Amino acid sequence: MLLVVALLLxxxxxxxxxxxxxxxxxxxxxxxxxxxxxxxxxxxxxPLVISWGVLDEARGHSxxxxxxxxxxxxxxxxxxxxxxxxxxxxxxxxxxxxxxxxRLHYLLMRSPGHRANILGRDYNxxxxxxxxxxxxxxxxxxxxxxx
Length: 147
Hints:
alpha+beta, 22% strand
């Protein structure tokens, strides 16, 4: 009997451990968006409008990072934004924290380039895409100015 159990365990496909933030991607996305707009308001800036039309592209980039198990910028970003876009920026990250939005926002605000995107005066829209896989929560924040 032990031999059968051992054989079944070796033949069974490995399962991924869940990301440590137990919330779904939608809740994490909303939390991260709220944190961005709260930070902007604290610095006397207008909140950014959520641009739902490009959500799938941002979420797709987060999924690509999750599949490749790394973080990197999207080389096709410019072509995934509305044609009227005149300025854009992107923040990407991943975390194993139990509160992914809090940790990602904390880290991004402490990086001068990422902070500049969050507090950018050149932007009036944003979108956040989330993907969860393995122990990580992946995020893609996109900021842009639509005229």
